[in-house]
Amino acid sequence: MSKFAKNQWYAAAWLAELGNTLVARRILDEPVVLFRDSDGKVVALADRCPHRLVPLSMGTLVDRGIQCGYHGMVFDGAGRCAHIPGQDKIPPRAEVRSYPIAERYGIAWIWMGDAARADLTRLPVIDHYDDEGWELIDGGYQHHPSNYLNIVENLMDPAHTTFVHKMTIGNPAAKSEPVKMKKEDDYIVAFKWLFNSPPSPMDRQIKDFGDQSVDRGQFFYYYIPAVSRVDIITIPAGLEPTEENFNKGLRNNSYKFLTPETDGSTHFFWMHLRNYKIGDKEWSQRMRGLFEKTFLEDREIEMAMQRSQEELGVRQFVGLEIDRAPTVAIRMIDRLIKEEAKDSGKVAA
Amino acid sequence: MSKFAKNQWYAAAWLAELGNTLVARRILDEPVVLFRDSDGKVVALADRCPHRLVPLSMGTLVDRGIQCGYHGMVFDGAGRCAHIPGQDKIPPRAEVRSYPIAERYGIAWIWMGDAARADLTRLPVIDHYDDEGWELIDGGYQHHPSNYLNIVENLMDPAHTTFVHKMTIGNPAAKSEPVKMKKEDDYIVAFKWLFNSPPSPMDRQIKDFGDQSVDRGQFFYYYIPAVSRVDIITIPAGLEPTEENFNKGLRNNSYKFLTPETDGSTHFFWMHLRNYKIGDKEWSQRMRGLFEKTFLEDREIEMAMQRSQEELGVRQFVGLEIDRAPTVAIRMIDRLIKEEAKDSGKVAA
Amino acid sequence: MSKFAKNQWYAAAWLAELGNTLVARRILDEPVVLFRDSDGKVVALADRCPHRLVPLSMGTLVDRGIQCGYHGMVFDGAGRCAHIPGQDKIPPRAEVRSYPIAERYGIAWIWMGDAARADLTRLPVIDHYDDEGWELIDGGYQHHPSNYLNIVENLMDPAHTTFVHKMTIGNPAAKSEPVKMKKEDDYIVAFKWLFNSPPSPMDRQIKDFGDQSVDRGQFFYYYIPAVSRVDIITIPAGLEPTEENFNKGLRNNSYKFLTPETDGSTHFFWMHLRNYKIGDKEWSQRMRGLFEKTFLEDREIEMAMQRSQEELGVRQFVGLEIDRAPTVAIRMIDRLIKEEAKDSGKVAA
């Protein structure tokens, strides 16, 4: 049984990374090379020439596809060999695996499982992307040397903010709020409200609230297997909590797309959408810096956990109340992987 | 069966290291964090939060103990959980192992085995520590990437001095002396006398011997499992070799406390006591430099041995006469470990 | 069965490396120390003192041989212990393995197998070495972190030149020529002729050909298990292709001596002989730089192959026509290793 759910879309690269270059990236522990074919379409191939196993990413982009840097074999975007220098006949095994790619939200999404099942309707949905009145920060990437489950747990757990992020977004004065939870088939959300409070210092920088009290909601969504969305809402105290009213307040949507690199490391892509300070690039720059620093604080913890888990072969010794939502999230992934394995029978890799 | 004798005191840290900080150190292949509790008492805990396995040493010192840097769980010096943010009930398994600590001779001694057997009467004894008329050099520490048995053998073997320490304390002109040996239950000493000789160049720097001949004794003590003491004595030739007379001559007591870090690396703590040049800090500084350099010469050899042993899976191919005392020392450790294993029955880790 | 053919001569070191020093080098995955004995003869010993396994190369050269840096044991060039400080009796096991060495062509050749079979008539033969009218570039060495079979294949395969060496010796305009092959018991040669063509740009730098057309031959010899010779000949078009005529044209003989260091790395020694620009040291320097750069281009590819092979446990997925000669070469090595194993029966290491 694979350690990963494979029949899923994972963020493989920012489209902006894929200009006139070859991008080599290990995804679900397989070496992949991404590039644009001569039509500008993003394609992804197994990053190994079938001849001598040299990574194709050491080669060059040519009209018909990618040319191996060792003996010049050319493979097209479908992984078919289009040319062998000095040889007319193309052997049947002269091919490399091609992975389905979808381009959306500025991201190349890859499908590492059964290509026949690649289903565009299952791509992640990012609300308000490209909407007027919403400002986007994108292109975020960090390499986190930790299993992606550790990152999922971290992102489903607001309790660590006070301790891990005291230098960035943590608020030591914040009184612990009870966290609630809602689970659907393909996602889970943990959330808490702070009612009728003064606005946060940062909210005051965004808008003049005067003496007005606010209700502040924090929603931690996790869509299996690889998308986290943190939705933070500040609305006037007492306003009915509807999606429409949320958009009238200050709203932050922070997305992370977690793509396992190996069993012990993760590609951490992130973007952020807000409904205020539209067009304010200076504010965006400042937020970007704050987010990067915050995620690096998490990274330190995640790395330490990874080392302990590798040494001990377990993930934890005692559970806490704050683990409820993360525990459900991990179980959802477990079930997904098991279902995939059952589904594909003995074919599962 | 453990590779190490566990029901023993090992040097864990210099007390001077333990101010207002957390000291993380792997000891007998277990991660340990040392700190002073609010009463100033040194305590040692397993360096892993039982919740998510993050090292507690990444956290902070608080009034009630140590606070995990991930979710703020607090553990007191006994390893009991004293606080969980946002949760009133402390689960029974929310605890970490606490190791007995004894503070003596400027050192925090740790007992890694069965806490119920931790016995202060079994602490190492350092003669003349704090005695008037004796000058101390302490605080010495080196990390030696070699199994501690290689270091024990080295310290029981004066024969290597001519070859390994030719740039420091070696004396190429020294004629080999027959080494004698005495074994007791818990220690062994190898020793040799050079009778009726001119004083060494260094002894002449310490004292004006005129034309006087001296007897020079070298005693290499090893107290299982982890203490080495080299006792070097220069007395007027012919003086009766009694403990009382030794103290009338020039006397150097060099102590090393070997604490296995892993199977292939060792914490090497050292101190030195002398009965001359009392209060002479400049001389102490010079000796400290000489010792550090000497121990680094041994370290090179020990590292090379470790690499060979790891590759070959053996410790030596042929024995020499000079191996007598080291061989007995190694056997004493072997027996100690076997007795511990038998003693603890199937519980032995 | 060994991974290597052992009853063979391998290049161990340049004689010029062996002055008044100890050269430590792992060969066929065994640690070896090379030095000149007091007669100036090169000797090779297992690089481990049999006492405590310290590498002898950490010791010093003395009159009677090599002295261990730990306790001063001295071993002569035959590996016999000649002296133990402080001990008169030499134990029978106080010896180290000695390897046969032959000095020829500026190289110390080592025989890692059964010493009784070391046969000087089986040393590699280098034509025109020391001949008048031939200019030598020698002393070349690179460390290639790849199994030597990958390097053998590379050296038997002219097809990669266009792609790997486009910055150095590759000629993108060169039309692919059919490669022919001839196999004998102990060598194989792949070769191709380009008939009646204009001289190459480099050939024009060497000699004024005027309007003359040339025939250009490239011969890729591989002598099992470890010698590659690339013989490149430029003669007037139509001249009969005889060895005598070859020497009348421009001729380059590029030798590589591949000595496995481990299963995944290789000592790459090289020398070059030419029959033009005799005594032109500036030209030699320029060629040396070009060769070094070219071999480093190959090294990049070889390293990448090694990593893929280690991950996948296979060497290739599909064969091409250009693999004919390399495949035969690899089979010749395989057979040699199998014959050695059969020959030595159960004694094979």
Characterize the structure shown.
Chains A, B, C: Residues 9-110 form the Rieske domain. Chains A, B, C: InterPro entries: Cholesterol_7-desaturase, Rieske_2Fe-2S, Rieske_2Fe-2S_sf, VanA_C_cat. Chains A, B, C: It comes from Nitrospirillum iridis. Chains A, B, C: Pfam families: Rieske (PF00355), VanA_C (PF19112). Chains A, B, C: Keywords: 2Fe-2S, Iron, Iron-sulfur, Metal-binding, Methyltransferase, Monooxygenase, Oxidoreductase, Transferase. Chain A is α+β, with helices and mostly antiparallel strands and 349 residues long. Chain A has 2 domains: 9-121, 3-layer Sandwich (Rieske Iron-sulfur Protein), CATH 2.102.10.10; 127-345, Naphthalene 1,2-dioxygenase Alpha Subunit, Chain A, domain 1 (Alpha-Beta Complex), CATH 3.90.380. Helix content of chain A is 22%, strand content 32%. Chain A contains 6 helices and 18 strands. Chain A has helices at 148-155, 161-164, 201-206, 243-248, 281-312, 324-343, and strands at residues 9-14, 23-27, 30-36, 42-46, 60-62, 65-67, 74-75, 81-83, 98-99, 101-104, 107-111, 135-144, 180-183, 187-197, 214-223, 227-236, 250-262, 265-274. Chain A has a 7-stranded antiparallel sheet with strand order 12-18-17-16-15-14-13. A 4-stranded antiparallel sheet of chain A has the order 2-3-4-9, with no helix packed on it. Chain A has a 4-stranded antiparallel sheet with strand order 5-6-7-8, with no helix packed on it. In chain A, helix 1 (148-155) crosses helix 6. The longest helix of chain A has 32 residues, at 281-312. The radius of gyration of chain A is 23 Å and the shape is globular. The relative contact order of chain A is 0.15. The mean pLDDT of chain A is 93. Chain A binds chain B through residues 153, 157, 159-160, 162-164, 176, 300-301, 304-305, 308-309, 312, 314-322, and chain B through 48, 50-55, 58-59, 67-73, 84-87, 91, 93-94.
